[in-house]
Design a protein that fits this description.
About 40% of the residues lie in helices and about 20% in strands. It has twelve helices and nine strands.
C-alpha cells in the first residue's frame, strides 16, 4: 500500500484492471499534529478505516466522533470530511470507481440502498478484504470476490431511508460539482445565496431546497465549514489569524473567532499554537 496525503476536492485516479485505490495516510502523531480533509465528493465509493486514532468525520449531515477504531463509508456523491486529532495508529483508505466497477458487477444496484450508518463492528472484516486488494499473488477474479464480500457487509439493516423513491431530487452531480468548485474559488470573499443560486440559473428559494436535498444541510452551513477548513489550512501554514480571517471571507474578526470556536472547539490562535508546537 502507498502512503498518501489527503486533498480537498478530488477526482480519484484509477488504473486499467484495478477499479480501486488503497493507500495509508500518515497518522497525526507522525505528522506532528492534527490534520483534516475539506468537504469533498466524487463519483466513487470511499472507505476510511481508523485504528488507534481520535477524530471526527462527517458524511452528509451525520457527524461522528471516534476514539480508537472507526469505519467511515461515503457513497457516491456524498459530501464528506474528516478531522484527525491525534493518535499513532493506522488510517487505511480505499476508493472504488463506479464506472470501472460496472465492467464487473451491478454496482449501482448496491449503492441504491442508501447510506451506511454503522459499521465499526465490521472493521476487522473490512480491513481484511481491503488489504487483500493489494496482494500481488491474487488474481483479479480473487480480488473481485473480496470486493463482493466487502460490499456484502453493507447489509440493509445498516441503512435508513433506503427507499430512494421517497427522496426529493437534489442537484445533479454536475451542478453540485460546480457549486463546490465555485465555492472553493471564492472563499476569500462574501458569497450571497442569490449569487450562488444564479450560478445554476435558479432562484434563491429553489436552490436552497435542492442543495439541502443533496447535502442534507444548508448552503450557508456548508460554506461556513469550507471557510473554517480553509482557515485551518492557512493557520497551519503560519499565517496570522487576522489575515486568515480576511483570506477566508470573514469581514468581522469577532465572528470568525466565534465560528471557529464553535466548529473546532478552541480559538484560531490556540489552534495555531497547538498545531505549530509553540508555547501558549
Amino acid at each position: 500500500m502507498k502512503k498518501s496525503n489527503s486533498g480537498e476536492y478530488e477526482l480519484p485516479l484509477f488504473y486499467k484492471d484495478s477499479p480501486w485505490r488503497v493507500f495509508e495516510l500518515d497518522p497525526p502523531d507522525k505528522r506532528g499534529g492534527a490534520f483534516f480533509t475539506n468537504p469533498h465528493w466524487a463519483n466513487s465509493v470511499e472507505f476510511v478505516l481508523c485504528d488507534g486514532i481520535r477524530g471526527t468525520y462527517q458524511v452528509d449531515e451525520r457527524r461522528h466522533s471516534f476514539d480508537g477504531r472507526c469505519v467511515m463509508y461515503a457513497p457516491p456523491g456524498a459530501v464528506h470530511s474528516l478531522d484527525y486529532y491525534e493518535g499513532a495508529g493506522q488510517i487505511l483508505v480505499a476508493k472504488f470507481s463506479l464506472s470501472e466497477m460496472k465492467k464487473y458487477m451491478d454496482i449501482e444496484m448496491i449503492f441504491s440502498l442508501g447510506t451506511l450508518e454503522a459499521g465499526d463492528e465490521c472493521h476487522n472484516e473490512l480491513r481484511g478484504y481491503i488489504v487483500s486488494l493489494c496482494d500481488p499473488s491474487l488474481s483479479l477474479a480473487d480480488k473481485l470476490v473480496s470486493v463482493l464480500r466487502l460490499f456484502g457487509l453493507l447489509s440493509p439493516r445498516t441503512f435508513r431511508d433506503s427507499d430512494s423513491s421517497r427522496r426529493s431530487p437534489g442537484l445533479s452531480y454536475d451542478e453540485f460539482r460546480h457549486i463546490i468548485d465555485y465555492t472553493e474559488a471564492n472563499l476569500h470573499r462574501s458569497i450571497s445565496l442569490d449569487e450562488i443560486a444564479a450560478e445554476l440559473g435558479y432562484n434563491k428559494t429553489y436552490f436552497c431546497a435542492k442543495f439541502k436535498d443533496t447535502n442534507h444541510t444548508t448552503y450557508i452551513s456548508y460554506l461556513n465549514a469550507a471557510r473554517i477548513r480553509r482557515a485551518c489550512k492557512l493557520l497551519g501554514e503560519g499565517e496570522p489569524p487576522l489575515r486568515v480571517a480576511g483570506e477566508c471571507g470573514f469581514q468581522n474578526e469577532s465572528y470568525f473567532i466565534k465560528l471557529f470556536r464553535e466548529q473546532v472547539g478552541i480559538t484560531p490562535g490556540r489552534w495555531q499554537r497547538s498545531i505549530m508546537n509553540t508555547e501558549d
